[in-house]
Design goal:
The structure holds 2 protein chains of 2 kinds.
Chain A lengths: L18 H17 L4 E9 L10 E4 L5 E3 L5 E7 L3 E5 L6 E4 L5 E5 L10 E3 L4 E3 L7 E5 H4 L7 H5 L6 E5 L8 E5 L12 E4 L2 E2 L12 E7 L2 H4 L10 E6 L9 E13 L8 H11 L25 E13 L3 E13 L6 E15 L3 E15 L6 H5 L16 E3 L4 E3 L3 H6 L4 E19 L6 E20 L13 E24 L3 E24 L18 E2 L6 E18 L3 E12 L8 E12 L12 E15 L10 E9 L3 E11 L7 E14 L4 E13 L2 E5 L8 E5 L2 E17 L3 E18 L6 E2 L4 E2 L6 E4 L2 E4 L7 H4 L8 E3 L21 E4 L4 E11 L2 E11 L2 E4 L39 E2 L2 E2 L7 E3 L2 E12 L5 H6 L3 E14 L2 H6 L7 E2 L15 E3 L6 E11 L1
Chain B lengths: L1 H20 L22 H13 L8 H8 L6 E2 L5 H4 L17 H24 L3 H22 L26 H19 L12 H20 L20 H17 L10 H5 L9 E5 L6 H4 L57 E2 L2 H7 L13 E2 L1 E3 L12 E2 L5 E2 L4 E5 L31 E3 L11 E2 L24 E5 L2 H11 L8 H12 L1 E5 L4 E6 L1 H7 L6 H12 L5 H8 L2 H5 L1 E4 L10 E4 L13 H6 L13
Parallel strand pairs in B: 8-9
Antiparallel strand pairs in B: 1-3, 2-11, 4-10, 5-8, 6-7, 12-13, 14-15
Classes of the chains: A mainly beta, B mainly alpha.
Keywords (chain A): Cell outer membrane, Membrane, Receptor, TonB box, Transmembrane, Transmembrane beta strand, Transport
Protein name (chain A): TonB-dependent receptor
Main location (chain A): membrane
């Protein structure tokens, strides 16, 4: 029986059914009910919505029992209850009501739409809680609301939806997942990724393995008082993902949802066209003679010959239902995403099953299983080659045949246009195939004799394997048609198990004292291994990567490509939650974790956490304040850890250096490249959190405001040692960081009458990150760009202040060998008495440039008129620095020399001295303009509409709907990524200002920017998608 | 009901299992299975691996083009070329920016040497227990001394204690460092190990290219010689950390000159399996790599990408690739011929990028000043070394696949065939004036000239510029797997990068003799061994034809009766041009400013062939390279005193 089914029926509202809650509550109530012995009465009634229409499918339940029914087509119900019982009536999107039966035998229940979501149940880890009683910082979103952004995975869907949860794109390729940062970065070299928990089991896979259609709810634990129950893994926040389940007493329900639509390039990369390029090359004066393929009267749009129109489509079928003592739910999904870069695509088939069965009165067992098979293809196709091609080169030879290579003044580049790639069918491949299965089995036993005491065993069994196959036929992607073919296969396997033993005690004493005690003992182990091998000169193209043995060339198994990692975690946890009269709440947690990754003697750490809440709104003195419906203060403190360093990091390691002694001895050399650290222990974070939740004006405006401070100590750091130590690095507990931040979430029903309604929600948050200390006595680590007193993520580079103009003083001193029109950077050295600089600009002039945005957030709004609804979801960011490697030296697309094509920029000429970009052909550092790296820094501000959806819900009371047996039919059209506002980067380049790469990716030079910084590089371009979708329920 | 019973039973089993799993404690223990722990280093196999890695470490120094640049650019052998970036420009010391701790690429040496020294420390420490032979340990001793010798020449005094004590295997994550003085490094870090290595190393290499007695003698002799000069300090060049020019062992400069001479003569008289090649051409011919004259090289192979250390198809210009040869290769691929015999259309890429020793991958970062052609290699007739050093003739390769078909016309619209010269850098200024057509693209697209009756474009010595100049044939690539095609010119060179040659022993002994050492052979006699060999021809490299001549007598006759250091330096340049010796030769003898203070070369664009005279600003502090910024950044403590003065 379903206790709480207050669900959300549309955008802007959060859903509340959490199946964990049901399980827990149900057990409790069954226990209670079978202790009581009283006479029963029969009650009939009807549940009506605000328009006095019957609400079919609403849940009517006898409070404190598992006894319940679901209303019929007209909202009617009939139930036998004990006399004096209370009925709990709930329905998706309506406020749950409790009705005292009294002496009545017939009851009419008028439901009103639930705007406040205050009665939601949230998953808090090892259990659920009513939102009202939550004392930690938890952000929740229902599956339906999340799916308003149709996407390949939940990280995409969640972007900008929740305060304090910063989700950034790290790749724009089909199926790519995003980086999730909860309340900033804490760690320097260890992971800052949050812990993901799928159906109660710590998740050992990729977020791409979870089908968003399967999601029932997502709850994110943000502060340590909430995450301390995950102890050593809670420091980066916890994302609790719950997949769909069936309802008790629910008739089998079959639903389909799907969407389909094209993907188009949001904006091509801003490369120069023929005349522009020619003018720039001439201004540079470095390449007087064109390349053999070039001609000054040609103007080729290479990107136009490259991109294709992609498609996105998704199809999901779900079946769910329940009997008296069991529930079930099954789902089958297919997702297909084809990119705009030819051959890039992602496909996923997912299956889900959840079954729950009660056995007798004391025992309940069940499982849920989520499995998927997915393939990613085409990641070998990059864009740099095409972008760098000279627009002065025609794709065709004078005789009309297609050019294999383009010869530019210094470079011969293989041409991989769309047509070429399509013709290469089967000759240039990169395929990743992943199979993953995530399973949670549980059994729950009510201990007879002690009311409210339960034992539960959870067993998580997960397996994930990935196969990678690559094949590049002879001459493909090489200017030399004879370059040997190449094939590789890679495999990885991950086995994960966890065994949790939980004892819980739930009691309500004297109606006002609610006590919940949880104790846990758990063991967990994860084994990962991977291997890869490759071969050259495959005997025939037909073999692709399926038979590396048929190779006439080198076959290699590189020791650096083989990997084995086994780690274990042992945990003890206890938690007490107590609330008095729903006014005063306290929650206290203690967890001890032991990890295999740390050094003996330092493996265990204990994490305390405590939080309190005060529901001011329930105090009598607030009764007169009619505008305030709810007001709660929360205060929390907790300690959590980060064990996310690689296994074996305490042991040190040897590097590998292969060498050939002539042609007769091929040997592998070893040298010590990292030192052991027998003292390596935990890095831990202390968080203080204060929050206020409120509901105003009849709960038409609800929201919460939070402030937090997180201090992270004993940071696990791969310390780079100076070369003179003879060793590259070692891992140590060094340093301290701090994050402080404010988060605000507001939801409002702005307007509502019979036909119209308008709702809006917004979240804004700001995080201030600071590196408090590094190793003793060290206040800067220039090699890693870490500086005490600054955020972890900074740029350490010269500061662009303009261009050197004719007549500017002291250029000869500051920039020996420089030229007019070159980049001018800040000089911080001394001046002599005459005001003349005393030295040339050099490394001492580098500045620390803060990347942090001032604030960021997201918004959503929904306007409904009769059966139509229009919703808009967007994100925004103010301030901060966006790094574009397209424009900086590391991308090799802004050489300003005319050697290869160049991003279209406004550059200095004697006639155009106010330009931002330097004179072509000026002083170079490497192949780039000196200080060219400073050209890649842009204001990161933007406001972006992510999705605009126009939907129509067919009237489910209409005859044809009833006849066809459909209970819901919705069609919608959506545009994703329609436009960007307030973005200086977008204004200059036309590009999407969202990052698409890690700092070491999609650039020609991959060590110029630390990989932790996200950049815009030459990844697949951002897309604008047009979608038509259908939701259907029988 | 029966089913329920069954259910209950299975549930009980399930729960019991859960409780049992609870008792696992070994899940907190670690056993790596895909990586080595440092402890492996103390086993016999680990020590063998350590020794292999010492040879592999050479690849991070030799063939690494940025380091290569620091050894040549700014000397009389090289200046920056048209595509030079800051790393090359500043090294020229000609007003194109100052050398600083960031742009000085001697960091390649700094970054590779200490880790290797530590590996050597470990091997020397752990070998006795692991039961490794003295001969093998001697290889580690050789490399420790080798690295310290390189470091002390380049940076001045460097630390002997990496954190766990002097010359001890470091297990301390030390972020501090104290520099020893130059005499401390020589007398404690170089000489003892090298002496021991001479005793313990075999005469015949253990494997192709491994260390031998002869190699250790070469380096000890060179170290003695270099240290003797340092003690001498004829031009009062400063050292750092500051220290008196006194030998802690109480020996004089003269004593060290004599020892250098003696040790070199030991090796000359007992070279083991090593011998001089018959011709200079053969020393550097790719087909003859790893020949009997070569004592040490950073090896590479085209047989295995893994053991080669770099891609066999595309190099990115980073160690461990051997890409030094790209630097002095100008962009010859710009050369064009015409498909029409009646008018110049310049539409045929007659010299495409090819993986052969004469061409390779053009980076146009470094160029020889005109003086190299006119002074250093003044004699191009008797002396085979100019021909065996440079590519002066660029030949059509239109017959390589993909074929370029149809007739091809070149200078004077004369027809040329595959293999014919398209461009020739003339040995001398021609008697007849060269006709430079206008616009410059008519000169083979590169502003070259035309002489009557010649189908190849020509450039005379005075016409070489930063954009068009003879290429460095010595370091050109060579592949056996190119078939009928152009091969893989974009990969790093799969040839070994030569580091030490038997011939240098003659130069070391001769230089010591010039500085006062005496013995069985005079400086002139020693130098004449080299010069006589240079006079022997068997192949005209740039003429691409057999040439059997022995001009030894003429070469010896041309040797001055009294030779001085300058003559030895000039002879060294003829022998080792472009191999990375020059800066060390000039700073050792303190002749840098004198010999490289000015140079001449044409400009940056194709039509700009007027020689310009450039003056360099070589200061005494430039005799030491700056300590790399990465070292300073990673250190704690007083970092200012760590840096060499002037930077």
């Amino acid at each position: 029986m379903d206790l709480r089914s207050a669900r959300i029926n549309g955008p802007g509202k959060k859903k509340s059914v959490k199946w964990f809650a049901q399980i827990w509550a149900m057990l409790l109530f069954t226990f209670v009910s079978f202790l009581s012995e009283a006479q029963t009465v029969n009650i009939t009634g009807v549940v009506l919505d605000e328009e006095e229409m019957g609400l079919p499918g609403a849940s009517v339940q006898e409070k404190g029992t598992t006894n319940g029914v679901v209303t019929g087509l007209d909202g009617d119900f009939s139930i036998s209850v004990q006399s004096g019982a209370t009925l709990v009536v709930s329905y998706i999107g309506f406020a749950t009501q409790e009705i005292l039966v009294g002496n009545r035998s017939s009851i009419t229940v008028n439901m009103s739409a639930d705007v406040s979501s205050l009665d939601e149940v949230v998953v808090v880890g090892y259990g659920t809680m009513r939102q009202e009683a939550v004392t930690g910082s938890v952000a929740s979103i229902g599956g339906d609301v999340m799916r308003e952004v149709p996407s390949a995975n939940i990280s995409q869907a969640l972007q900008g939806r929740l305060p304090g949860v910063d989700i950034s794109q790290t790749s724009s390729q089909p199926g790519a997942t995003m980086q999730i940062r909860i309340r900033g970065n804490r760690s320097l070299t260890a992971s800052n990724d949050p812990l993901i928990v799928l159906n109660g089991i710590p998740f050992a896979g990729s977020i791409a393995d979870i089908n968003p259609e399967d999601i029932d709810s997502i709850d994110i634990l943000k502060d340590a008082s909430a995450t301390a129950i995950y102890g050593s893994r809670g420091a980066n926040g916890v994302v609790l993902v719950t997949t769909k389940k069936g309802f008790k007493g629910q008739k089998a329900k079959v639903s389909y949802s799907g969407f389909h639509g094209p993907r188009t390039v949001f904006s091509p990369y801003p490369m120069m066209d023929g005349p522009e390029f020619l003018a720039m090359r001439e201004a540079a004066g470095l390449f007087e003679s064109p390349g053999a393929s070039e001609s000054n009267d040609v103007n080729t749009d290479w990107q136009g010959l490259f991109y294709q129109t992609g498609t996105m489509s998704s199809h999901d079928v779900n079946v769910s239902g329940g009997g008296e003592k069991s529930t079930y739910s099954f789902g089958l999904g297919y997702y297909h995403d084809e990119g705009v870069v030819p051959t890039q695509q992602f496909d996923r088939i997912s299956m889900r099953a959840a079954v729950d069965q009660e056995i007798g009165n004391h025992l309940r067992i069940g499982f849920n299983s989520n499995s998927n098979f997915n393939t990613t293809q085409g990641s070998q196709v990059g864009s740099y080659g095409i972008l760098s091609l000279s627009p002065l080169a025609s794709p065709f030879n004078p005789d009309g045949s297609r050019r294999r290579n383009i010869s530019m003044p210094m470079d011969d580049v293989w041409v991989g246009t769309r047509d070429v790639l399509n013709e290469l069918d089967g000759q240039w491949l990169n395929e990743n195939r992943t199979y993953a299965t995530y399973n949670a089995l549980y059994a729950e036993l009510k201990i007879p004799g002690i009311e409210g005491l339960k034992y539960r065993a959870n067993l998580g069994l997960d397996y994930r394997q990935t196969n990678n196959g690559e094949f590049t036929a002879r001459g493909v992607n090489s200017p030399n048609p004879d370059t040997e073919s190449f094939a590789a296969v890679g495999n990885s396997h991950n086995f994960h198990w966890i065994m949790e033993n939980l004892i819980t005690y739930d009691r309500i004493f004297a109606d006002k004292h609610i006590v919940n005690v949880t104790a846990l003992y758990a063991n967990e182990q994860n084994k990962f291994y991977s291997s890869r091998m490759w071969a050259r000169d495959i005997a025939a193209d037909q073999f692709q990567f399926y038979n590396l043995g048929n190779s006439d060339g080198e076959i290699q198994i590189n020791p650096n490509d083989q990997n084995y990692q086994l780690w274990g975690l042992s945990s003890l946890m206890g938690r007490v939650m107590y609330s008095y009269d729903d006014k005063y709440m306290i929650s206290a947690t203690l967890r001890s974790d032991g990890s295999s990754r740390l050094a003996p003697g330092y493996k265990w750490h204990t994490y305390p956490a405590v939080s309190v809440g005060w529901n001011l709104g329930k105090e009598s003195f607030m009764n007169n304040v009619s505008q305030v419906d709810m007001l709660k203060l929360r205060l929390g403190y907790g300690q959590t850890s980060n064990q996310a360093i690689a296994p074996y990091a305490t042991l040190g390691g040897l590097g590998i250096r292969p060498y050939n002694f002539g042609n007769d001895a091929l040997l592998t050399g070893y040298f010590v490249n990292s030192l052991p650290n027998p003292n390596l222990g935990w890095e831990y974070s202390e968080t203080y959190n204060v929050g206020v939740d409120f509901g105003l004006f009849n709960n038409r405006l609800t929201g919460s405001l939070e402030y937090y401070i997180t201090n992270t100590k004993d940071i696990l750091l791969g310390v780079n040692l100076p070369a003179t130590s003879g060793v590259g690095s070692y891992t140590a507990n060094i340093g301290e960081t701090q994050n402080k931040g404010v988060e605000l979430a507001l939801n409002g029903l702005i307007f509502e009458n019979n036909d119209w309604s308008w709702e809006a929600g917004v979240n804004i948050y700001a995080n201030r990150n600071q590196l408090v200390s590094l190793a003793s006595g060290q206040d800067r680590d220039e090699g890693n760009w870490w500086f005490v007193g600054h955020p972890i993520d900074v740029i350490f580079d010269h500061q662009y202040v303009g261009l050197w103009q004719e007549g500017d003083a002291h250029r000869d001193i500051l920039e020996p060998g420089g030229n007019v029109g070159m980049i001018k950077v800040k000089y911080t050295g001394d001046f002599d008495d005459e005001g003349v600089p005393t030295r040339a600009i050099g490394p001492d002039d580098r500045q620390i440039l803060d990347l942090q945005p001032n604030f960021m957030g997201g918004f959503n709004t929904r306007v409904a008129y009769k059966n139509f609804d229009l919703s808009i979801i967007g994100t925004f960011k103010s301030g901060g620095v966006l790094i574009s490697t397209l424009h900086s030296s590391s991308g090799y697309l802004n050489l300003m020399s005319g050697r290869r094509n160049n991003v279209s920029v406004d550059y200095w000429t004697p006639e155009n001295t106010e330009a931002r970009y330097p004179a072509p052909g000026g002083l170079a550092s490497g192949d780039n303009p000196k200080y060219g790296s400073t050209l890649g820094y842009f204001d990161a501000s933007y406001l972006k509409i992510r999705t605009m959806t126009l939907g129509y819900n067919f009237d489910n009371a209409s005859k044809w709907m009833t006849k066809s047996g459909m209970s819901r039919l919705r069609v919608y059209g959506a545009v994703q990524n329609p436009f960007v506002l307030f973005s200086p980067f977008n204004r200059e380049t036309g590009l999407d200002p969202e990052t698409n790469s890690f700092g070491d990716q999609n650039a020609a030079i991959t060590d110029a920017i630390p990989s932790r910084l996200l950049t815009i590089g030459t990844n697949s371009p951002a897309t604008r998608n047009f979608i038509i979708g259908l939701n259907l329920t029988f | 009901m029966k089913n329920i019973q069954l259910y209950l039973k299975s549930i009980k089993v399930f729960l019991l299992t859960g409780l049992l799993l609870v008792s696992c404690t070994d899940i907190l223990e670690e056993q790596p299975r895909s990586i080595f722990e440092p402890g492996f280093f103390q086993t016999e196999e680990g020590i063998f691996g350590g020794i292999t890695s010492m040879y592999a470490h050479l690849r991070y120094i030799y063939g690494q083009a940025y380091y290569y640049n620091t050894t040549l650019t700014g000397t009389d052998e090289a200046t920056y070329a048209q595509s030079a970036d800051q790393n090359f420009l500043v090294m020229d010391l000609s007003g194109q920016g100052d050398i600083d701790p960031n742009n000085s690429r001697a960091d390649a040496l700094w970054g590779a040497a200490f880790s290797n020294i530590n590996t050597a420390n470990g091997i020397i420490e752990f070998a006795p227990e692991a039961g490794v032979s003295e001969a093998l340990v001697a290889e580690a001793r050789f490399f420790r001394a080798f690295d310290y010798f390189l470091l002390v020449q380049t940076f001045g005094g460097v630390p002997l204690d990496l954190g766990s004590g002097e010359l001890a295997f470091n297990i301390e994550p030390s972020r501090t460092s104290v520099r020893n003085t130059v005499p401390e490094v020589y007398t404690r870090g170089v000489f003892p190990d090298m002496l021991q290595a001479i005793d313990d190393l075999p005469s015949v290499p253990r494997l192709t290219g491994t260390a031998t007695k002869t190699l250790a003698r070469l380096y000890l002799a060179k170290a003695y010689l270099t240290y003797a000069w340092w003690l001498d300090n004829p031009n009062n060049i400063p050292t750092y950390p500051e220290t008196p020019r006194q030998d802690p062992d109480g020996n004089s400069a003269q004593w060290y000159y004599q020892e250098a001479y003696n040790i070199a003569m030991d090796a000359i008289n007992d070279p083991g399996p090593f011998s001089l090649q018959e011709t200079f051409y053969d020393v550097n011919l790719a087909q003859n790599d790893r020949n009997s004259e070569l004592l040490l090289y950073a090896d590479h192979t085209e047989d295995s990408e893994f053991y080669n250390g770099g891609s066999l198809v595309w190099g990115n210009g980073a160690a461990p690739d051997n890409f030094a040869g790209w630097m002095m290769t100008w962009n010859y691929t710009v050369l064009r011929s015409s498909s029409s015999s009646s008018e110049w259309v310049g539409n045929i890429e007659s010299v495409r990028r090819e993986a052969i020793q004469a061409t390779g991958r053009p980076w146009t970062r470094m160029a020889p000043p005109i003086g190299v052609i006119t002074n250093t290699f003044a004699d191009k007739t008797n002396d085979s070394r100019y021909d065996g050093t440079f590519t002066t003739v660029y030949r059509a390769n239109n017959d390589r696949t993909p074929l370029i078909s149809g007739p091809m016309y070149n200078a004077n619209l004369m027809e040329v065939q595959a293999g014919d010269a398209i461009l020739t850098f003339l040995d001398e200024e021609p008697d007849q004036a060269i006709n430079y057509p206008s616009p410059s693209s008519l000169g083979g697209n590169i502003g070259a000239g035309i002489l009557p009756g010649r189908s190849d474009f020509v450039i005379s010595p005075s016409g070489i510029s930063r954009i068009v100049h003879p290429g460095l044939w010595k370091l050109g690539p060579y592949r056996t797997d190119s078939g009928s095609g152009l091969g893989e010119p974009n990969a790093g060179s799969t040839r070994p990068f030569n580091i030490a040659k038997l011939s240098e022993l003659y130069f070391i002994a001769a230089e010591a003799a010039v500085q006062g050492a005496t013995g069985s052979m005079s400086a002139r006699e020693l130098i004449n061994v080299i010069r006589a060999r240079a006079g022997v021809w068997r192949w005209n490299n740039n003429g691409n034809e057999e040439k059997i001549e022995d001009n030894s007598a003429e070469m010896i006759a041309a040797t001055p009766a009294e030779i001085d250091v300058n003559y030895i330096l000039a002879e060294r340049s003829r022998e080792y041009y472009g191999e990375g010796y020059r800066w060390y030769d000039l700073i050792r003898t303190q002749k840098w400013e004198e010999l490289a203070g000015t140079y001449q070369i044409g400009g940056m664009s194709y039509s700009d062939r007027t020689p310009q005279t450039v003056t360099r600003n070589i200061q005494p502090f430039h005799y030491l390279r700056p300590i790399p910024q990465g070292q300073i950044d990673a250190m704690e403590g007083d970092r200012a005193i760590y840096q060499n003065p002037g930077y």
